[in-house]
Design a protein that fits this description.
CATH class of the largest domain: Alpha Beta
Oligomer: single chain
Number of strands: 9
Bound molecules: 6-chloroguanine
CATH topology of the largest domain: Alpha/beta knot
Helix content: 25-40%
Largest sheet: 5 strands, parallel
Number of domains: 2
Length: 254
């Protein structure tokens, strides 16, 4: 998976991606990240890439041409790595007006070989270049950030961990939160007794069938308590439905 990021703050992207699991994935060659500074494609000596909005109003707007040149630079670089036919590219514009990002979108993006991100700043980007290059509009939630870099990092992180080889434990990407519209069960580690609180008995039993049943029940209970909205899309047995309904009605201690 090759990520390309058009941004005015390449250090923000590179610094974050070079840490932790994504950093290890880069060093192992499972993913690559190339941040391209839109400012490098400015045509004036002050390296400005923004201007006043037509029609007036507060703030500045990023100009079309530096963004377009930056995109063409990335486009040519990607195409030159393929021998024959040109590949189609997804260009993701991070904007609060986009579709709210979720695990299903992360899984779809993980199937791409290349992903290009466009991070806006100031009051936005000239609409004409957006219409020319962008294929996907993505938001990370209903609040406003100062720029698209943090959202791009959020999307790249979620996608990276679905790329084969990135997580050491290949089942962990599947058994956790959201994989079947259920939240993950609670986890415990040593000591067995912590300040008077003990670990649930079943976890010490080593009885695989009982464990699997407990994990599943805990996921259902937790989802019913914390995110009952997810249960509409979850595939539950009759028994699990009844458990969820009971938890929603009477709480955890039913
Ligand atoms: Cl993608 N961009 C900005 N600027 N703010 C956001 C966002 C994106 N998603 C949520 N808030």
């Amino acid at each position: 998976m090759h990520f390309y990021v058009m941004t005015l703050f390449p250090d923000m992207i590179n610094n974050a991606m070079s840490e932790s699991i994504t950093g290890r994935a880069i060093r192992a060659g499972h993913i690559s990240v190339k941040s391209v500074n839109i400012r490098d494609f400015s045509d004036n000596k002050h390296k400005h890439v923004d201007d006043y909005p037509y029609g007036g109003g507060a703030g500045m707007v990023m100009q079309a041409e530096p963004v377009y040149k930056c995109y063409r630079h990335i486009y040519e670089e990607i195409q030159s790595t393929y021998k024959e036919n040109r590949v189609s590219l997804r260009v993701v514009y991070l904007t609060p007006q986009g579709k709210t990002f979720n695990q299903k979108m992360a899984a779809e993006y993980a199937n791409e070989e290349n992903l290009v991100f466009l991070c806006g700043h100031y009051e936005g980007i000239d609409e004409r270049v957006i219409e020319k290059i962008v294929t996907d509009y993505v938001s990370i939630g209903d609040y406003v950030l100062t720029g698209g870099e943090l959202p791009a990092l959020v999307v790249m992180d979620a996608v990276s961990r679905l790329v084969p080889g990135v997580l050491n434990n290949c089942i962990s990407a599947h058994t956790e939160s959201f994989s079947d519209n259920l939240l993950e069960y609670p986890q415990y580690t040593r000591p067995e007794n912590w300040r008077g609180e003990s670990v649930p008995e079943v976890l010490l039993s080593g009885h695989h069938q009982k464990l699997a049943k407990w994990y599943r029940e805990q996921s259902v209970i937790r989802t019913a308590l914390m995110r009952p909205d997810l249960l509409e899309e979850a595939e539950l047995t009759q028994e699990e439905r009844e458990l969820a309904d009971k938890v929603i009605k009477y709480g955890k201690e039913t």
